[in-house]
């Protein structure tokens, strides 16, 4: 086959099957019509030969592109690459390609990129940029666009989503701090325009009890926003002995503000993050945080979309994945009263 591209006939011959069987096995919409061991043998043969399906021709026949649009708000935030990897892993297994765009948390940019992907006839979207009130997604759902949100939800009935069990994660974190002896616990809340910020704040207020706990809302899920919120918190509530941050970047900002004030963590203030993003164990001190299974989150989001695309009558559902508190060195017993 030197000098020419391998064909479907070549794949079928290498796998010892009929051309039609090879075609069904390499098409995500008909793969289930072929025995799993046969489909695997065909896939291996295709990869060994370097066979690339003609998705353009297939798209003209089926009105499908086998491409999926993936929107993320900020690829510099370390929690999103594992989600994207999970999405790609599951889409690859079903013969779909992920087209990734970064919106920079800019609504105009998001709308333009969404329209660009739609013009390329992607089969559906996986969206990590969802806000609780999201006109763009509402319009897309109204048009019947296949949508799945990941890490966040949108207040739009019938939209599938994959999220972590944030409420239980907050409960674990607050219980840990109380077991250490903390009674003056504050929350550096994420933006309330997104579901993660709202759910974690609501859970914190429930766990804080009737007396409540100090809450400062951050302008964003960033280190800078976390530092600014910590500054306000320590100025207004100097007796605070522990904080639960809305995410790990906010926690990183809290650590930076403590260092700038000549205070130490956890001797002067215990800090708990949320997400267990890569390198959270390299913080100084290593960060106690709530682990969210982001790779699995991406896998499940892709699976939900594939189900929507291959079974139009699929009932929309929300998948909630368990969270786990990871205890490191940023939490300890509160300092003795002066």
What does it look like?
The chain has 338 residues and is of the alpha/beta class. The chain folds into three domains: 8-53, 434 Repressor (Amino-terminal Domain) (Orthogonal Bundle); 63-164 and 294-321, Response regulator (Rossmann fold); 166-292, Response regulator (Rossmann fold), CATH 3.40.50. Helices cover 43% and strands 16% of the residues. It contains twelve helices and twelve strands. The strands form two sheets. Strands 2-1-3-4-5-11 form a six-stranded parallel sheet, with helices on both faces. Strands 7-6-8-9-10-12 form a six-stranded mixed sheet, sandwiched between helices. Helix 11 links the parallel strand 8 (242-245) and strand 9 (270-275). The longest helix is centred in the last third of the chain and has 17 residues, at 294-310. The radius of gyration is 24 Å and the shape is elongated. The N and C termini lie far apart (81 Å). The relative contact order is 0.12. The model has no long low-confidence stretch (mean pLDDT 91).
């Amino acid at each position: 086959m030197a000098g020419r591209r391998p064909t479907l006939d070549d794949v079928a011959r290498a796998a010892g099957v009929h051309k039609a069987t090879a075609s069904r096995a390499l098409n995500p919409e008909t793969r289930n019509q072929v025995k799993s061991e046969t489909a695997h043998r065909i896939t291996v043969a295709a990869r060994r030969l370097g066979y690339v399906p003609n998705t353009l021709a297939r798209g003209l026949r089926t009105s499908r592109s086998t491409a999926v649009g993936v929107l993320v708000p900020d690829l510099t935030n370390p929690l999103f690459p594992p989600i994207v990897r999970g999405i790609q892993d599951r889409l690859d297994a079903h013969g779909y390609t992920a087209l990734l765009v970064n919106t920079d948390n800019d609504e105009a940019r998001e709308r333009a990129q969404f329209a660009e992907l739609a013009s390329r006839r992607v089969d559906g979207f996986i969206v990590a940029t969802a806000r609780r009130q999201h006109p763009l997604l509402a319009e897309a759902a109204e048009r019947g666009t296949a949508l799945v949100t990941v890490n966040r939800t949108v207040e739009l009935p019938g939209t599938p989503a994959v999220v972590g069990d944030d409420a239980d994660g907050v409960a674990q974190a607050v219980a840990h701090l109380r077991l250490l002896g903390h009674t003056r616990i504050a929350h550096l809340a994420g933006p309330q325009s997104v579901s993660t910020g709202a759910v974690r704040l609501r859970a914190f207020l429930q766990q804080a009890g009737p007396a409540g706990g100090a809450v400062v809302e951050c302008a964003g899920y960033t280190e800078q926003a976390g530092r600014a919120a910590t500054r306000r918190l320590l100025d207004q509530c100097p007796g605070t002995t522990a904080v639960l941050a809305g995410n790990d970047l906010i926690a990183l900002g809290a650590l930076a503000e403590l260092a700038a004030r000549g205070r130490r963590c956890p001797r002067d203030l215990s800090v708990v993050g949320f997400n267990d993003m890569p390198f959270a164990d390299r913080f100084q001190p290593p960060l106690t945080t709530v682990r969210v299974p982001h790779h699995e989150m991406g896998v499940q989001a892709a699976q939900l979309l594939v189900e929507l695309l291959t079974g139009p009558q699929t009932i929309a559902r929300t998948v909630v994945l368990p969270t786990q508190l990871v205890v490191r060195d940023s939490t300890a017993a509160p300092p003795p009263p002066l």
